[in-house]
Amino acid sequence: MRQELQFLFVSESDYRLISLFWIGLAIAVLVTLLFFRAPYGRHERKGWGVRISARTGWVLMETIPAVFLSVMLILGSNREPVIWLFWAAWTGHYINRAWDWPTRARISGKMMPLSIVFMGLFFNGVNTWLNGIWLFELAPNYDLEWLMDPRFIIGAIIFFTGMIINIKSDNILFALRDDGSTGYKIPKGGLFEKVSCPNYLGEIIEWTGWAIATWSLAGATFAIWTACNLAPRALAHHKWYKKEFEEYPEDRKALVPFLL
Question: 0.85 exceeded by the pTM?
Answer without folding.
Answer: yes
